[in-house]
Every structure is written in structure tokens, then in C-alpha cells.
Amino acid sequence: MTFPISGARRTALAALALLLAASSGCDLTVSDPNATTEDDAFGTRTGLLTAAVGLQRQYNSVAYGNLVLTTGITSRELAADNTFANLLDLDGGGAGLPADNANVTAYFREMYQTIATADRIIDGVQATATVEPELASGLLALSEFYKAASIGALAVGFTDAALETSVDAPATYVGRVAALQAAADLLESAEGRLTAAPPNDAFTDILPKDNDGTLLFDLLNSVRAYRARFALFAGDLDEALAAAMRVDLDATSVFAYEGTNPNPLYRAISPDFGQPSFAVRDDLGLADVEGGDGRIDYFTDPDTDPANDESVNGFPIEVATGFVVGGDAVGLPAYVPDEMRLVMAEVYARRGNASEAVAAIDAVRTDEADPFGLAAGLDAYDGDTDLQSLLDEIYYNRATELYLQGLRLEDQRRLDQGAADSSDPFARSRNFYPFPRQERLANPGTTPPDPAL
Amino acid sequence: MRLALLFSLCVASAVPLAAQSTYTITGTVVEDGADEPVVGASVLVEGTRFGSATALDGTFSFTATVEPGTYQLRVSFVGFSTVRTPVTLAASGAVDVGEVALSGDALRSDEVIVSATGLPVERRQLGNAIGTVDARELQDVGATAVDQVLAGKVAGAVVSQNSGNPAGGVSIRLRGPSTVLGSADPLYIVDGVIVDNTSAALYDLGGGSQNRLVDLNPEDIERIEILKGASAAALYGSRANGGVVQITTRQGQSGAPRVTLSTSVRTDAVRKTLDVNTAEFNRPQGTAPEASADPTRVDRFDYQDDIFQRAVGTEQYLSLSGGANGGTYLFSGGHFANEGIVRGNLFRRLNGRLRVGQDFGGLLNVSFGGNFTRSRSDDVPNGGLNSNYGALTGFVFGPNTTDLSPDPVTGLYPDIGARSNPRDVIETYTFNQTTNRFTGDAQARLTPLDGLSVSYVLGLDTYSQSARALIPIGATAAGLADGFSRRADLEVTNLNNDIRLQYQTDLGPSLESTTTLGGTSQYEDNSTFASQTFDLNPGVETVGGGSRPDPVGESRSESTLLGAFAQQTFGIADQLFVTAAGRVDASSRFSEDNRTNFYPKLSASYDASGNGAYRRLAARSYAPSTLRLRSSYGESGGLTSIGPFTRFSRYEPGAYIGANGVLAPGLLGNPDVKPERQREFEVGADLGFFGGRLGIEATYYTQNTDDLLLNVELPLTSGFSNQLQNVGELSNNGVEVLVRALPVVSEAFSWSSTVTFASNKNRIDLDPSVDYDPLTSTEPPATLVLGNSFGLVAVIDDQPQGVFYGSGFQRNAAGDIEGLAVDPATNQIAFDNGDPTIVTGTLDDDGILRDASGAILVPIRDGTSRIIGDPNPDFTASWINEFEVGPRVSARLQLDGSFGGDIFNFTRRLAAFRFFGTLSDYQAEIEGDVPVGYYQNTELQAIGANYGVFSIFENWIEDGTFVKLREVSVSYLLPASVSNRVGTDALRLTVYGRNLLSFDSYSGYDPETNVAGQSTGVRGYDFVEVPIPRTFGLSLRASL
After folding, report:
1. Nearest to B940 by CA among A429, A71, A422
2. Long-range contact list for B809-812, CB < 8 A, 24+ apart?
3. Does residue B444 sit at the A interface (CB-CB below 8 Å)?
4. Nearest CA of chain B to the CA of A378: how many Å?
5. Partner residue opposite B941 with nearest CB, options A50, A275, A313
6. Which among A77, B30, B212, B577 counts the fewest CB atoms within 10 Å?
């Protein structure tokens, strides 16, 4: 049903349109003055530098917070303390956790958003001729670090992970052990790049620094520490031990925050912003703790009365302290040095070397001065030295030392700390999450089946 | 005011007057066909103030003092076609115009409609049902804005007032929503100028926002025409998917200067308040009151007493108009100020308008219009959608156990718990927004040859809106105790240039042709600048004085649209009218390949009553005296769902610890997006009976929007969340019926009655490649959860727009609701060996689940999201009655009804939660009238069995059916002896009321509410938005 326009009228119309176009300066090609295009972000040297800054912010301020908070509820490090249905559902856990839970979805989404940016930077650096080798090594290693961190973080909560992002084709998933191995491989590549061509100032300029200009984030040590972490999770004990040994245990590396990129745990847990969504569990959510453990006092303040000593779902909660709630600008450790000692302890224990394992454990237990002020101040270990006893002791130290680092859910499974039980306030409420409903609906072909629990 | 009057009189006396003579004009007005006299008809010499009303025998006689010449005598009466008859006044003396016949016209067939074809055409020639509203229907009805006043007046226009603030937002859906993502409100055109109707939320008021149509003074309006869909509005091209509302403002008439003055006072009050929890004690969750040795006794308060007030308002309007020597002018000024029913809320609108025109011997006509408005609202945050700091928000979150009064020593307001202290919000927070707006037009019409005209309109609408929020130090707002200040400015400019060439000719004795060519260029520029800070020092109000500023937000956008159209109309034998038209548009919002779009239109109207043979047949039989069939097809476009730059992947700034950065967006760009395209077909009939005293207008329409733009969910493993794609389809099908009757027409009493009925079925197809059947399909349907709804409103495949989507009651295979049996001894869930007993039950009138014996059961949650309600009404209907009692008294009564839509009572849900517990539901739990944990059960939640109805969203869906007494007014024309004594020609006193009564079964404030404001998808969402008040007013109108 169209109306025929004769040639003469067409000419008249065109003339009219032209007249009007001339009268008000109408340009039909309008560029966006508010945002950067994809070509500018990943196709130029300046663009790649800004993209690499955005990558750090994306992971540190958003994705990492989602990992810690979401898995922290499931591992019982935290309790939901607000009435939003997504929080109550997550807190309830079990088989009833809906696949469209907003927290689980956000955790999954933000990790892949990080990976997508890292993938684009890796491709862009290799395709952009104006990036010098000393900058390229830094940009590539940084991207590989964050990509590996994201894949490893996904392996904490999900049975499978996709290693590459694509807007054109469905993702290919691999099992979580293969994903952790791939993450360790990315970190191996990053370590090689950093040692072969140490990055120049153009690169270190985009890393967070304190007011004195000291780097807050130590990329090389973080790469080694995460390599040790993920190799351990993947069961590659040799690589885990070797990488852990190369980490400088006096160095610190933090995810830095500021007023405009606030510490995500502080914002979620502190009561400074109204009813918080999350609360720290009394005794860090552990059924049994050792008296006088400085780490529990580091994270919780038993001397201050909480407004409620029960969460909305009736879990015992406590007032939070420490770097978790230090303020908007207080950084969170990318890893703590004692994690490396506990990696070594676990490798030794699993290899049957109990004395080395106990020595490494004791270095953590008797620690009086940790770079982060996180010191147990306990006596040396005097318990049994069979494998499970050692693993239990390693779990206890990891649970307290590595509190709120998004690791406990993995530790509970790997170190055989009982089965998932949503009715036990001290057992994890699930083993793995269902894949987000959005992923399953939009990618029905390759999304793996959901775990029962 | 007196000064203004004096001033206007001075202007009036400055108009030169020629030599005048006095005439006595007489005649008789009769009803056509019946030869009955028409009593009370108005007779006026057009362009003058001389006229009269007909007497009991239909005769009239009056004197006029005018210059000699030929005048039009206008004879009109409600429900009859207006007749103009020429009268030549030569030498002074008596002039008899003889008999003037009026025919009844409930269908308003002769009404001239401009907007559908761009030229004045009688309604009977159009293929569409066009809604029209006259100034008379806008006055003295207690409405504050033009869109609000349209409620119930046009079949097929669903007008919803989202908030009860005096400047509260209003949404209009013409034949249902036409898009999902963007605004589904119509395009507004005032005197040829495209005017902006943005609902900018420059600061967070907890939900709703104003829409900028509030800047238009309803008093300035002469007439409104409403094109409801593509088949009528195709000429408006890619902006017409929501329909078009064309507004004509008042203009001067040739003749002596006329002054009109109106003044009114009004008062508003909350119509209904909620029942608060008055339990005298608190108890810890999970323990029965008597189990606690010393139940905590508490005082409870009704915070609503501290929030609501009786509001007063006042309105003044003054205009001066007239014309001579081919020139016309109108100046007007208005002032409107009205408090809100929430203390501290005030809206004030000042405007001045002028319209001048000059005709140069019929060859050229030039006119200019300009309006300046300054609107200012002192706002009080309310609504629970976003902000933590609203007044009603504080009330519903409670708990209501704290005296809200400030501490007598420190002056600080006590912290009441979860949210702000309502008195603190009202008495110490400062939120205000000011808009300065100019809308103007310049128009020229050249008529070089008989039948040929060229017209040009230049329209400009520009405004700046500035919003400022201040929460002082010591506030009870969570997280803002150290103060908060925000300023946000919005600047909007709309510019349109329209040129139109028209040629009208007779191609034969009974074939009339009109050809129109036109072109338009439209430019929009929009920029915002916003800044805010936390941590203020004493006395500091500005953002610059704060200690912890957020990054400044700025955005700019512009977009351009070029269009051209051609239209051909044929009128055959004054019976068949056919129009064909096409429009081509190009918009900068799309990439070059998708930029240009063509929208055709074809419409026809057949007026059998234009045929002499039919008229004779109708006169002899029961066939309708008027019979008209019409049909129309048209296409139009929609741009509101795509922003100027959404086709790009936009990497927004993301600085991190001193370094510049860009952040990857969640929305993947899509260069292939194109406009949404609506195809609408309508067919209808207009029937007139009893000599036009009964008219029925019925229309069926089917409207399909293809290429619906949706934020399609991508696999998250793509690294993006969504992409805007033209994937869906949306349809609106419905019926509109308008019945207008003049049951009684006499001198002593006249009654006209209008009933409108509209039913619309809306359906969205997210994925046309899959036919999802909710009954048989095992796969979940494609779903888009909408923002601003706590994830509880979704667009779901094959469902209507905006259904409520969330957890429901657990049901057995037969569909019966299941609950847990209660142990009467403890009033808690009964456990048998650690297991609860599941029993089926039904919900009673109060929504409490009971088994067959009447014992209360604790419902069980089924956590899988499903459709739990539909806010779209099945149908809407209105009944408007107008009465004339004698020559002086008239009355009006309007009932509006909406039937079958659901409301999500989130307000009540929240207040039932044990930590808040502000309404009577929780009182029932405390006092043992419902089992412990009925609303939220933590014990059972830990074992994963139950969450209480707090987490069963289905429990909070209620029927939103209502019938409202929307408008009532009684008006009295004072005797001439009185009006003349105070120097006026006419003086009319009106008492009116608005929203006086609501007949509904809704437990909240009002089923007509929406905390998400003018959101297209989220409707009927009740979360402590300010309820619509009951209004009474008194107005006085004077003219001379």
C-alpha cells in the first residue's frame, strides 16, 4: 500500500527538503561527544592505555566485590542483612536458589565483562603499531593477569567457565580444572613477558600509586601469587609451590580504592550508608575458633554492640573492622603474603611432608607482624599430622587469614570441609551456583547443565 | 490585579474606533425538521460582543452598536451544529434575519479538524476517529495540567496521574503503549510547535518526576485534537507512534477589545489514609506475646498526621483580546500556585502569552505567538523506588514507635530506624526545581491564487530546568548524616521548520481535489550538567562548598530529523472522501543505511447522509439520520526507544586512581538499528439518530508495531549484557465507542450525556520466530525484566506490556494454594516430628489463607518467577453529564472507571515486614490474629521451607478496578444587574470538585498511582507515591 510519487513531485520534495536543510544547518551525521568509540579505545595507543585503566577499575571496584560478597554469603563468611529478595534467596541457598539470582548473575557478568576488555586490549596491543614493546609487555601482562583472575574467580563459583568472550559465536565452556589451568597458563605468559621486557614508565603511570608515588599494585608479585593460587586449585602442586616460592613475601599488593571508586566491601558491609546488605558473621562464620586469634579480632569487633546481633535470617553477626570496612579509600589486598605460606603448607601436606607443612603453618600461626597487620599471634601447631588434620588446620588458617577474599567456597570443597547443607549455618549453602538464567536463555547451545547443589 | 486591568483598558481605548451606528437585530431559532423553537441558543454577531440568547418561543432581539458592514451572525447551542448566517448592517435601525434552523449534532460532524490532514476539514470527511476537547471542558475542573484534564474525555486515551503532587506526572496512552523502552506518550504540538514533554528526574525523589507539559497553562487552550495512532498520524512520520496531541491556544477575534478575568481558590486533602499498627507492645520475632515475661510496651504513632496537610491553591488569569483592520491580538497572563497535600510541597506556575496576527487583504497572513513560563516546585521526596530519604518512605519503613518531634535541646530529629524521619525530611530538606521556558512560533501563509496556499511555521521550544537538593548536616537520611547537596541543570531546545504547499480545486461538478506537499526539519538539543557533594560544613548549601564531591556529570546530545510529505485528497459528490499520503523521514539517530524511511497512509470516509436519497429514506424510516462509514490505514515510526547515540558501543569515562580510563559498557552497540514501525488499520461507523440528538461513534482498530526495539539479553559470556535490536512485535487491538445523547432539551432544563468506552488488548511478541504457549510450553518464555521495579516487572513473550513477574504461592497440581498448618496452642506452625503439615486452602476477603475449616494456614513460597498480575485494564469507561437549568445554572458531572487492571501493593508488603511493621497487617501478627511468622518466618527460612508472605509477591497483587467521581461542578451566571454593576458583561461563579470519591476495593491509598512515574513498562506500582488528593474549588470568571 504505497502512494505513488511522480517525478515532478519528487523533484519538488527534494527541493523543499534541501531548502529546509539549509535553513537550520541540519547535519544527519552527529558524533557522540560524551563517550569513546570502540575503535578509539582499542585501536590507538592512548585508547589502549585508558582501556587498561578501565580494566583495573572494572575488576577491582566491581567484579572483585561481587566475587567476595556473593561467594561470601554461600561460604557463610557473610550473612545477608537486607530484605531484598535476591539477598534472602542467596542467603537461603540450597536447591531453591533461583537461576536468575541477581547477585550470582552480576558476579558472572562482571567477570566476563572484565575478560572481554582484557581480550580486546590483548588484540588491540598486538594490532597497534604505535605501542612500544616495553609498554606492550605491561599492557599484555596486566590484561593476562585480570583475565586469569576472572577465570579463576569464576572457577570458585561455577563448575565450568568459558575462556574466550565473543559477540558472534556461542562460548566454548571447559571444566573448572581446565579453566584454572588455563588461568595459570595466562599467568605464566604474563610472568614471562614482565621478566623478558620490563615495562616502561608509560605503563607504570597507569597503575595505582599512593600519594608518595609508590606503586600500590605489584603486578609481578601478584602474577606469581595468583599463579600459585590457581595451580594449587587445579591440582598442579609443583607449579603452585614453585610460583609461591618466587613471590616476595615482604612485598604487598593491593586493589586500590578512592572516593569515586570506593572499596566495594566497605560500601556493602558498613552501616555508614543505611541498612547494609551484608554483615560479617560472628567468628567469621566458623563453628569453632581458637581463643586469642588476632585475625578474628582484626575483622570483627566483639567489644562494640551491634544494632542487631542477628541478621534478618537469624544468623549471628558482628560489627566489622579492618581493611574490609576501613573506608572508601582503603585498599583490599590482591593477595596476602601468608597465602603463599599456606599454599606451600598444602603442597607439602599433600606430598606427605608433614614437618615442612607444619613449619609453614607455624609461620602463619605465630606471625606477630604481618604487612597488613593481620597477625594470628597464636602458639605453634601441636595437633595431629595426618593429612586431613593438616588440611583442617590449613583450612582454619585460610578461613581466618584469607577472610573475604572470595576463596573460602573453593577451600571448603578442596579441603574436604563437609558437604553443602543450606540448613547448617556453618556449612556452605551450595557447592556451585546454577548458571545465570540469562546465559542459559541466550546461549542454550553450550551452557553446561546446572549442578544439583 | 487592578493595575493590570487598568493597563488593559488603556490598551483597549488606544484601538481606533470608526463611526458606529446602533442596530436592533431580531430573528427566530428553530430546530431543523421539527420546527420546534430552540430555547436558550446563543446568538452573537461574530467579532463583537453583541448577542443574546433565544427566548421561550425561540425568538431573539438585541441591539448592537457597530460600524456598518457585513457580519456573520453565529447561532450555537450545545448539541446542535453551529450555524453562521450573514447579516448586512447598513443604515441604523431594525434588521430581521428571519428563521435560523439548527440541526442536532451529537456526532459533531461539522466540527473542523485540522491535525489529521494538516488542513481544516470537517470531521465527516475523515477516515479516522479523532478526539477533540474544547476550552469549555478544560475550565473549572480542578486539574493542574493539560494532560491531567484529558482524563475520561476522549475514548481510547488512557490518562493516568502517577502522583498526587500538584505538579505530579501524568502518562497518556493512546490506544495502548506503542513501545517498550522509550516514552509511549504522544507527540505534543502547540500552535505548530513541537513541544518537549520530557520527564527528567534531575534529582531522586524516590520515584516519580514531573513531565514538562505542566508548563502549559490550561487556561490558554482553545482546543485539543487527538490523533490516536498511525492511521491518523502518518503525516507526522517517525515521531507519531504514540499518537499526536495537537493543541491550539486562544487567539483574538476581530472586534471590540475583550477582557476576561478568572480567579479561583481551591483546597486539596488526602482522600484516604492507611491503617497503621496500633499494637501496644512489640515482641521479639518468633515468640508469642504471652510467652514473653515482660513484653516491651511501646507507644505508636501515625506518621501520616505529620505528613499530610490540607493544601490550598489559587489561580488567576487575565486576558485581553480583540482585533481590527485585519489584525488580531491576544495577551494573557496566568498565575497558579498550589500546595501539595504533603506538607512542604508547593508548585507555582507563572506564564505570559501573546498571539498577534495580521491579514493583508487575504493574500498574506502573518502571525506570531510567544509564551514564557516559569514553573517552580518545592518538592518533598516520597516514594520508595530509589531514595532512602522520603517522607512517606520514612513512614512506611517505620517502625512507627518513635515520636518524630525534634529533640528540645539539640533540635535534632530522632532517628526512627531504617529510613529518614518524615518530619526531618519535610522540615529541613530543601528540594526545588525551577524551569524557565519559552515557546514561540512565527507563521506565514501566502495565498497567491485562489485555491493555492503556501504556509510556513517556525517553531522554537526551549527551556532550562534547574534542580537543587539540600540535605543538611545532622539529617536522619541513612548515609547522608553529614549532609548532601546536588544541583542538576537540563537545557532543552526543540526547533522545527515546516513548509506546506496546498492546492485546492474542483476537477468536476462533484469532484473536489486537495493536494498538499510539505517538508519539515526538526532539531533537538539536549544537555545536562549535574554535580553533587556529600559532607557539608555548617551553613553550606552549594555543591561547591561540600567536602566530598562526586564527579561532575555532563552529557550532550543532538539529533536531527528531515521529512517531506505529499498528500492527495478527493471529495466525490460530497459523500465519499479519499485521502492518500506518504511521508519520507531521515533521522540522525540511525546509521546511513537505515536512515531513510517511508510512511504511507490511505483513508476513506463515506457519508451516506450527504446523499439526498438517503436523507429522504432516513426521514421516512428508522434508519439513522446520519450514517457514516470510515476506514483508514497508515504507518508511522517511533524514535523514543533509541537515544541519539545508542547505536554505538559507548565506552564511558572510568578514571581510576589518578589515571584516565574508559569503561566497557554493558550495552553492545548495534549499527543496524532502525525506527520502530507502526502499521495501524481502523474501521468505524458514526450513526446519528433522532435528528442528531443521539450519536454513536464506534471504531475498531488494530495496531502493530514491528521492528520493536528491545534490549535483547546477550549471552553474558559475550562480555556484554544487552544489545538494542529490532526484534520484537507489539500489537494493540481494541474497540472505542462514544455515545452522546441530548435526552432533554428545553428552556427549563437541558441534559447532555456522553459515555465513552475503550477496550485495548496489548500483546508483546519478543521473539516472533517462536510461538510460546504458556499452557503447553515447557521452555521458559523470553523475558526482559524492567528497571525501576525491583526486578518485578517484566516484558514477557506473548504477554501484555508490564506484567508483574515474581514468586507466587505454592500450589498443588489442581492449582489450590498450599499452606502449613498452625498449632492453635502456640499459634505457630505445627511440626510433626520436625516436619510441617501441608494443607490446601483459599484466600479470604482480607487475603489471609484459610483451610476448609477456616483455620489460618501459613502460605508457602514457590520461588520460581511467574506472571502474578497485569496492570493493564481490560477496559476503561467514562460517563459525562452536563445539565443546564434555566438560563443561569449549569452543572457537570464526570465518572471515570478503569476495570480489571492489577496493582502491585508494595507499600503494604513492606509494612508487613517485622522490622518495619508500620501497618495494621503486622499488628494482627503481634496481637495473635494471624500466626507468628505469617508475614516473614526466619525459623523456617533457615531450613529452606518457607519465607512467609513477605517473600510471596503474588500475595501483594490487588485488583485496581475503580470508578471515580472525577469532576463535579455547578456554575451560576450572575444576573446582568449584578454583573453590570461591577462593570462586567458577564460574571460566572463555579463550585467544583475533583476526585471526590473512588469506588474501589483497593487497600492502599489509591489504585491510580505509579511510583515509577511516567515509565512506559512499569505501571500500577504502588510504593508510597503521593496519593491523588480530593479537590474542592471555587472560581469566578468575568468578561467584558
Report:
1. A422
2. B809/B849, B809/B859, B809/B860, B809/B861, B809/B862, B809/B952, B809/B954, B809/B955, B810/B859, B810/B860, B810/B861, B810/B862, B811/B862, B812/B840
3. no
4. 34
5. A313
6. B30
How many other C-beta atoms are found inside a 10 Å radius of the C-beta of residue B983?
11
Is A41 in CB contact (< 8 Å) with chain B? yes
Quick: pLDDT tens for B15-68: 334 567 888 888 988 877 556 677 677 788 876 767 777 776 778 888 887 888
How far is Cα of residue A55 from the mean position of the Cα atoms in its chain?
12
Lowest mean pLDDT among B438-447, B518-527, B541-550: B541-550
Cell of B877: 469507561
Q: Do B717 and A112 touch (CB under 8 A)?
A: yes
- Tell me: the pLDDT tens digits for B248-277? 999 887 778 889 999 999 999 999 999 999
Q: Express each pLDDT in B447-473 by its tens digit.
A: 888 889 999 999 999 999 999 999 999
| A103-128 average pLDDT score | 96
Average pLDDT over residues B862-872: 89
The Cα–Cα gap between B812 and B184 comes to 40
The amino acid present at B478, given as its one-letter code, is A
Q: How far apart are CA B185 and CA B211, in angstroms?
A: 10
Rounded CA gap, B30 and B37, in Å?
Answer: 4
From CA B306, how far away is CA B288, in angstroms rounded? 32
Cα of first residue to Cα of last residue in chain A, in angstroms, is: 58
For residue range B914-939, what is the model confidence (pLDDT) as tens digits?
888 899 998 988 888 888 888 877 66
DSSP E strands in B142-201: the ranges are 157-161, 170-174, 187-190, 193-195
Which residues, at least 6 apart from A237, have a Cβ–Cβ distance to it below 8 Å? A231, A347, A350, A351
Residue in B with minimal Cα distance to A164: B717
Residue B294: pLDDT band with limits 50, 70, 90: low
Question: Touching check for A353 and chain B: CB below 8 Å?
Answer: no
Closest CA to B211 of B193, B198, B221, B226: B198
**Residues 390-449, chain A: which have Cβ within 8 Å of B?**
422-423, 425, 436-439, 441-443, 447
| Smallest Cα distance from B348 to chain A, Å | 34
For chain A, say whether B550 makes contact (Cβ under 8 Å).
Answer: yes
Q: What's the pTM?
A: 0.84
Cα dist from B527 to B116, B202, B429, B496, B659, whole Å = 33, 12, 27, 18, 26
Distance from the Cα of B281 to chain A's closest Cα (Å) equals: 19
Q: Is the pLDDT of residue A173 over 90?
A: yes
pLDDT higher at A109 or B84: A109
- In the predicted model, is pLDDT for residue A317 greater than 80? yes
CB atoms within 10 A of CB A445: 8
Q: Report the pLDDT value the prediction gives residue B419, as an integer from 0 to 100.
A: 86
Evaluate if residue B776 carries a pLDDT over 90: no
Other C-beta atoms closer than 10 Å to the C-beta of A186 total: 27
C-alpha cell at A319: 560489627
Contact check, Cβ <8 Å, B863/A89: yes
Contact B950 A83 (CB under 8 A): yes
**HSE-CB for B17 with a 13 A CA cutoff:** 15
Cβ pairs bridging A and B (under 8 Å): 278
CA-CA distance, A282 to A316, in Å (whole number)? 6
The CA distance from B872 to A304, in Å, is: 51
CB-based contact B61:B25 (threshold 8 Å): yes
Task: Give B599 to chain A, closest Cα distance, Å.
Answer: 8
ipTM: 0.92
CB A264 within 8 A of CB A328: no
Cell of B621: 424510516
Encode pLDDT of A409-427 as tens digits: 999 999 999 999 988 999 9
